[in-house]
């Protein structure tokens, strides 16, 4: 696909529903008693993988024009699937399902695409085994994973990485465990699981970095309105911030504080982003307006990293347009996403003439010289593809993106929205 440099981005857009919340809405809806109506659900491939896995375990899930309707089977109502579960490209589906499957009275195998088969699963296998789960994985760390029936008991577990997927897998297994389950986070990661548990009547307490769950008798279905995904909004926030003359409003974006690191960093870089129409339901949301402004380099590291982990590729693009040096550190987790996102962004930014160095845990971007268009590789990674598209819009001369269809993982309409804005 060709990407041409574009003029100012102006107007109002919406972005698709939050991916993390959409996954959890299907999973908890399936385990609840009663019917869950989900509005704003992300019809991206990852969330469709989650739907597919639950359908294979006997859950009726209907998709209409504006809702996903999940007929809950209750905590103990899942059925043994007649074939292996396929989790596609989705780390969230794979790891959260591990937690749920660990507590089921049947044997089940799960695997995904070539990228998912390279992503570490030992991090969830270890605590689940401590809870009594019986799990086998390729080389004891990778998909395919097979889970065998076992009795679970609660544990107290200190997470070695700030990962919401790991935290959620343990808490989901905790639904099936005897006694309390406690996880201790090294830094706050997205808390959508905890919020949704509370909404469904589960007793779960957060005390600083410690989260404790009491196994419930059952979950009560509630309707779920999914806000727009701030990780998808981030592409337009950066595009608006770096393309001269832009003024763009993104409506109904989820601004859960565990997800808003990208707003903090872009503002630190000098971006003009304002929030309006704020409302707080189970998840807070608002409209975000970004105006072009001159950016400068910043240092990004420490506890903010889990609050912006998926936005770092597009933040690296903002850094290329910012005056001075941007240092990204403590971001080793980027190496085990859909691709090695540090290596991918360093290679592709370099193609665009950006002065960037890879480090052990991030990168250093020496920004300010206008990048030029190039022929970019996406590494079959949706976030890399969209980050490079944003780079292409603001660069000098045309760019090409290979395999642009990978955006369908989290944002099927991304290029249509871009095109509409360009009109
Ligand atoms: O829990 C979630 O929904 C997610 C957690 C993050 O992964 P980690 O838990 O591996 O950091 C994030 O990168 C992913 O896109 C979604
Ligand atoms: C890392 C991501 O997702 P997942 O881990 O669910 O594959 C992502 O969407 O950027």
From TrEMBL:
Keyword Hydrolase applies: no
GO biological process terms held by the UniProt record: amino acid biosynthetic process; aromatic amino acid family biosynthetic process; chorismate biosynthetic process
Binding, 3-phosphoshikimate: 19-20, 24, 163, 165, 310, 337
Recorded catalytic activity of this chain's protein: 3-phosphoshikimate + phosphoenolpyruvate = 5-O-(1-carboxyvinyl)-3-phosphoshikimate + phosphate
Protein species of origin: Agathobaculum butyriciproducens
Gene this protein is translated from: aroA
Top-level class of the enzyme under EC nomenclature: transferase
Residue span, Enolpyruvate transferase domain: 4-418
Binding-site residues, phosphoenolpyruvate: 19, 91, 119, 165, 341, 383
Record's protein name: 3-phosphoshikimate 1-carboxyvinyltransferase
Subcellular localization(s) per the UniProt record: Cytoplasm
Family, per entry: Belongs to the EPSP synthase family.
GO molecular function: 3-phosphoshikimate 1-carboxyvinyltransferase activity
Keyword list, A-Z: Amino-acid biosynthesis, Aromatic amino acid biosynthesis, Cytoplasm, Transferase
């Amino acid at each position: 696909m060709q990407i041409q440099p574009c003029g100012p981005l102006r107007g109002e857009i919406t972005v698709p529903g939050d991916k993390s919340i959409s996954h959890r809405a299907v999973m908890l809806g399936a385990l609840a008693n009663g019917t869950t109506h989900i509005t704003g659900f992300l019809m991206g491939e990852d969330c469709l993988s989650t739907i597919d896995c639950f359908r294979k375990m006997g859950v009726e899930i209907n998709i209409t024009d504006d809702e996903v309707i999940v007929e809950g089977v209750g905590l103990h109502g899942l059925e043994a699937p007649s074939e292996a579960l396929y989790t596609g490209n989705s780390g969230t589906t794979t790891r959260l399902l591990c937690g749920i499957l660990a507590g089921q009275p049947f044997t089940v195998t799960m695997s995904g695409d070539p990228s998912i088969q390279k992503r570490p699963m030992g991090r969830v296998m270890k605590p689940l085994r401590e809870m009594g789960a019986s799990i086998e994985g390729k080389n004891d760390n990778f998909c395919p994973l097979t889970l065998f029936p076992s009795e679970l008991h609660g544990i107290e577990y200190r997470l070695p990485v700030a990962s919401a997927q790991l935290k959620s897998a343990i808490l989901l297994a905790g639904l099936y465990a005897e006694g309390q389950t406690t996880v201790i986070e090294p830094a706050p990661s997205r808390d959508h699981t905890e919020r949704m548990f509370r909404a469904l009547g589960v007793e779960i307490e957060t005390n600083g970095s410690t989260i404790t769950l009491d196994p419930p008798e059952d979950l009560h279905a509630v309707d779920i309105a999914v806000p727009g995904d701030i990780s998808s909004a981030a592409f337009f926030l950066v595009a608006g911030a770096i393309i001269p003359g832009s003024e763009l409003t993104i409506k109904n974006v989820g601004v859960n504080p565990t997800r808003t690191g990208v707003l903090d960093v872009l503002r630190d870089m000098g971006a003009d982003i304002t929030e309006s129409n704020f409302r707080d339901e189970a998840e807070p949301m608002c409209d975000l307006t970004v105006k072009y402004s001159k950016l400068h380099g910043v240092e990004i590291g420490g506890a903010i990293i889990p609050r912006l982990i998926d936005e770092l590729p597009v933040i690296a693009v903002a850094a290329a347009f910012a005056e001075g040096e941007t240092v990204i550190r403590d971001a080793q987790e980027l190496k085990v996403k859909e691709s090695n996102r540090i290596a991918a962004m360093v290679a592709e930014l370099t193609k665009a003439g950006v002065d960037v160095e890879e480090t052990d845990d991030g990168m250093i971007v020496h920004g300010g010289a206008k990048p030029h268009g190039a022929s970019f590789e996406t590494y079959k990674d949706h976030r890399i593809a969209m980050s490079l598209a944003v780079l292409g819009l603001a660069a000098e001369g045309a760019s090409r993106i290979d395999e642009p269809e990978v955006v369908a993982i989290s944002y099927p309409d991304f290029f249509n929205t871009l095109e509409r804005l360009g009109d």
